[in-house]
Amino acid sequence: MDQSEAISIIALLGAAATLGCASLLDIRTRQVPNRFWIFLSLLGIALILLRMKMDGERSEFALILVPIVAILSDVYLDTEGDSALARIAPVVKYAVALISVGALGALWANDPYFQHLLAIPMMMMVFVAMYALDIIKGGADAKALIALSIVFPFVPAVGDLPLIIPPDPTASVLFPFAFAVLIDAAILVLFLPLGFLARNLSSRDIKFPQMLLGYTIDSGTEAPGFIWLMERVEDGKHRIYTRPRADEDTSEELLKLREYGRSRVWVTPKIPFIVPIFAGLVLATVAGNLLFLLFGF
Hints:
The chain is mainly α. Helices cover 61% and strands 7% of the residues. The protein has helices at 3-29, 34-55, 65-76, 84-108, 112-132, 139-151, 171-174, 177-189, 192-202, 210-213, 250-260, 274-286, 290-294; strands at 215-218, 227-229, 231-234, 237-240, 264-269. Helix 5 packs antiparallel against helix 6 (139-151). The longest helix has 27 residues, at 3-29. The relative contact order is 0.13.
């Protein structure tokens, strides 16, 4: 076992243990405290410095921690209040991150090793943007992926794994391991509609597209936890929708639907996405980035 493989094993064990515990908590409560992702981020920073030393890389490469810490400070350190400082603080933090990424790129972007390090803050900002645009729904999901970006600047290679090898070295820079985890997790989630379809066909609940997105419950029962409604009564009219509304009072809306005459109501479950991320980590470790297989990169 060489040094790189040893670090990969440490990173994988740390990430798997953290995501495994977080998955159990996500299933039970749909909430995962920041301490999970702060620990994983600190582990990643420690492994970056350790790997650089073991690989004999120049110490100046540690400056990559400037944009990394700047982004983490915005993710975890909220400036309270409605002051000008509170409003401008996030802008300053991301300005520091962007300027430092640009400066460091100008210095060492041609170095193949540093390219992987430079991809860390860039991938972190991609995940922040995906959360801001509501592509990634949960804050814990985004923080988990941000932490994985730090832990895995390089694709973890253990023995003959992963099975799918990037076609060239730049592919793993353009599609870092954390992004592969997200893609693999998203592909796994795509199988959920098949499960909903089978369930609804067996119970003869046929309505498109709801039958691919959820299932029906009795409107007379107490509102179950961790669901969103796919229908409601507005202005005396029954309306169907598929985009969840996070601000709804489920019990109140069920009562309105029951009074309207709806005995069965379509709902969609709140997916504990940390679980697919955990599964995506395992799949990406064993198989690799499925994008390379699906699209022949």
